[in-house]
Amino acid sequence: MSKEYYISPSRGRLSFEEVFADIIEFVSSEPQLRHKLIIGTDSQFREENGSCFVTAIIVHREGKGGRYYYQKYYDSSYSANLKQRLFFEASQSLSLAGRLAERLAENGYADLNVEIHLDVGEIGSSREIVRELVGMIIGSGFEAQIKPNSFGASTVADRYTK
User: Fold this and answer.
1) Which domains does the chain have, with CATH numbers?
2) How far is residue 65 CA from its own chain's centroid?
3) Rounded to two decimals, what is the model's pTM?
């Protein structure tokens, strides 16, 4: 990725800094409500240009909706090997969550809950690596969600891999 940017359906193309500022504005506009920051990545293998990865950032105002932003990129080094792609998805989400958590702490929002949604579940082809991926996320200090509760990866990010 040469120039990092995210897409917001309501705000258009944004830099990481603009996304961060928008998250802070959204959270601080109703500080009495509970907010959660959700990061999720999904991928789809494509023979013509490798795997398409989408990482989504969702700022959820519990009971009141939210906003989301996503970044789409291709990587030919992750082919049809599902296990490799799932570990890469988790590492992408973990990296972004770390960046956001650091910036949140620097700006007085260290208490904002950051959750990573994994596109794995107890049923299906990904079930063999659920514990490994969840352990990786929890061991890094973040909460992890798997299917059917991982809408950040399995619904929001998934929508843009097609």
Assistant:
1) 6-159 (3.30.420)
2) 17
3) 0.94
Both tokens assigned to 108: 């007085």
Rg (CA), the chain: 15
Sign of the C-alpha dihedral, residues 10, 12, 15, 21? negative
User: What residue has token string 């891999």?
Assistant: 161
Integer angstrom CA distances of residue 162 from 22, 51, 54, 123 = 26, 11, 10, 22
3-state SS, one letter per residue, for 137-153? HHHCCCEEECCCCCHHH
- Indicate the helix (H) or strand (E) that contains 59: strand 50-61
Give per-residue pLDDT as tens, 112-141.
999 999 999 999 888 999 999 999 999 999
pLDDT tens readout for residues 15-70: 999 999 999 999 999 999 999 999 999 999 887 778 899 999 999 999 999 999 99
Tokens of 118: 């994994």
- Which residue matches tokens 């969840």? 134
